[in-house]
Design a protein that fits this description.
Strands 11, 13, 14, 16, 17, 19, 20, 22, 24 and 25 form a ten-stranded mixed sheet that branches. Strands 54, 59, 60, 61, 63, 64, 65, 66 and 68 form a nine-stranded mixed sheet that branches. Strands 2, 3, 4, 6, 8 and 9 form a six-stranded mixed sheet that branches. This protein has four helices and 69 strands.
Amino acid sequence: MKTRLFLCMMLPAMLFSCAKLDNITQENRITSFKIEYHQPQKIVIDDAVIEGDNIYIPILYGKYDFPMHLRASVGVPAGISHIKGLDFSQELTLDDIDSELQFFIVAASGTTRAYTIRPREMPLSENNYILDRVSYSLRSPEATVLSPVVHRVDSNTGIELLGVDLQWPVTIVPEFQVAEGSGFGAIWEGDDRSKAIAFQNGRTTLRFTDADAIYTLIVLSQSGLEREWKIALKSCASLPTGTAAAVSKNTVVEGKQLKLTAEPTGGQSPVVIDETMVENDRYAITAMISAPDAWPVSINVKYPARGMVDLIDMERDTTLVFAGWNDVKEFWLLDSDEYKARKWSIAVKEFTPLPAQRGEEAYLTGLTYTHTSYTIQYKSGILDLGRSYGSSLNMSGNVAYVYPSEKRVDLIYNSFQDDAKATGTITGSANSAWWRVTIRIEGCTFSSNTASHTMPSLPWTIDLAATGANQASALMNGMRRTFSVTSDDGTVSEWEIVLKSTNSAIAPRSGCDISGMTIAKVIPNYTLFTANPVTVDDAQSEIVIALAKDDGCYPMRIFPACNMSPGASILSQNYGNDPLVFDTPTSTQQVTVTSEDRANSRTYTVRLDAPEQVDGSDILELKIANLPPGFTTNGNVIIDAETGGITIPVTSLDAPFPLDVEYRDMEITENATASIADRGTLRFDNCKQVKQVVVTSSKGQNRTWYIRLDYRPQLRNWNLNSWNGTSPLPANYWANSNNSFTTNINPVAGKSGAAGDLCPEMKSANVILVGLAAGSFFVGWFDTANAISYGASDPVRLTFFGVPWQTTATIKGIMLDVNYHPGEANADWGSIVVSLINWNGNGTYVYHGTRPGSAPPASGGFHPDNTATLAAEGKVLVGTNTSTSYGQPVTQLPDGQWVSDLFIPVNGNVAYTHLAVVCSSSCYGDYFIGKAGSTLKVDNIRIVYE
């Protein structure tokens, strides 16, 4: 670094060597340092610690409650001449956590040792965030429900409570959860903090008069850092049953994501959930179960975290206990994006078991019989006479028609003949007569050789009371007998034999076609079909079922209702009782239809027409929910679909890593899955760490996404309003020359001139026996303890430049506001330098820049104590006239006036580990060259990134 700022401010005593004299002590140390008392008491401290030339006061709590006033006593060994710099009989003041006080111990021999009193911030948590849970009690009966979920908005400082159909005013008593060690401060309504009261968690009543009412709550970290939280209450409109899903899609239950599982209760047999029904038209979820051994029944419900959806009155992973069939549980889905709400119910109902899967049912395939004779029997008085005749019943060829779909056999007869014999015997009104017809069934066949059956008794005798053949024939039509058929698996079906006249008989039909199909039921019930989903292609013997959306509801069980040829029946799927099961979108099923006469059959192939799934594995959206203290986001998350890169823009005031990025609402391609949840936390150990997320598409294809930070930090206290003239502030950051001996740098009004807007004012001044000392201000720290030892011989050795710096962006330079006035006839220039410094990590980081020589800027090269090297440098000289200085052009500024946004470029495309900014009122002040009275003021120093 060719331009050095220096600050030689030596006392005359510094120029004399102090030879050791006999019998005169050189002891100049302290033996103890004790804090007698301090104010305010809310600042909690520990015992002071002496480390070398530093006295540290540990601050356990309250670093934001400075200034701190204290009295202290100093213990010194015998022979100490006096203490200079501080009067320990008076109260001392530390203005803030980064201020310091210096005093000097003078030995009897005159040797002097400097001590510095510094507050030391202990490693306490800065967490002042409200966690994701809010408990509450209502003092207003109009409030239907409140959401117990915290919504962070804007700068992570908002709490939005949601209610349903609220009627104002609403009074609540909230109870917030904060991180361990955090606490609560004041709370007030509106903008008037003078009306603040102490917030007592779970006991302070908040009254919201309308939706615009806002409360501000202070949360304190363990170290005392304040954060303001705005508390608002919003009313969500409840949606009536039957409201379209398009109205607040966030309150629609996606059945494929809802997980219901039964859990055993009290040692009883576990209950099986046969089907889960989700009905978005009436906001109902039903677990279909078989009748339990005993009540209660426990069912676990898992509902996924989804975007702007709050689950109210039920946890996302919880167990519900049902006391009986009529027990109903209720919960709310709140859409915090559209401020809509739906009330859902969960119930259990008895599931009607499907027929057990079994082998093909046995049926009658054929039957043969003979009509042997008929008998006419009549009665005259008390004498019963009977006479048998040969067959006169025309049985139409002894044909039996079998109807398996109706489990019926028809025996057809043409006529009942009334021959002369019969006619002659039934005469006279005094005689009564009846016909007895006998039919012998000679044999029958079944579809299974091992089936059993119970046929009617043989022979089959029919008695007909009649006065003539025609009447007997009419009475015989429709006569029936029943029998049973038992299949191989024990299934029993009831059959019947019917005697029919030719005039009433219909021959079995031979058709076996399916002319149409409808869907009677589908499991899961939230499967979506098109308006007219079923198409029958008779030519191809194919049936196509069209899905409106392939949302992965597999296995899919479809119960069809078929329109078939008259008398035809389905032989497959357990005679049509079992569903068609599709395990994938490409699964197929066969449906076999047989004709009524069993002479014909036909097989149809049933397939799904599923729309092409979006075979995507993309991350579509990712939102930042929370960043830790010191970090903020300066834009929306950037997603590059082409490269698979996701960039989270983050800035900070040099806050330390690791960084925990709390994210929410991660949206991925429909039906895809991701290796991380849709809300959670990503930890970055450094700014260049890359997180990988694997998204798997619906077809199993993986894509890796890379999440990076766009980290562009700014200098701590970049607006310089907290700089108070001490060195350093805070430790190892902004520093200036040893102000204990000179007053050539002080805080003054900043560029805006507004109250509280400060900046450093650097002045060049002549120092006795040394010469010019330039006012300086830089990023780093100044070694006050050795100012006496090196002030004249090697002043640069006192300046330690640079702080660790990491960023993912390229630094272009710095921009700042500048005000300059040259001293002594406008013959001086100020300088602003930005340096990028590289340290290889060996030893301790030390960078003093260049060592001053007698012929600036041709100095003696870099300081030999440096353990780091200069990687890149940008420098601007400022003055009030156009000129050059040792070949360096001077930027002309109006004398003593502020100039905004002066840019100093630097080549940021180099390897570096540290960054320094150095400002000096005389550009070669570290060479003791310049003019007294030169004054430089700087403000609002910002780093500019590409």
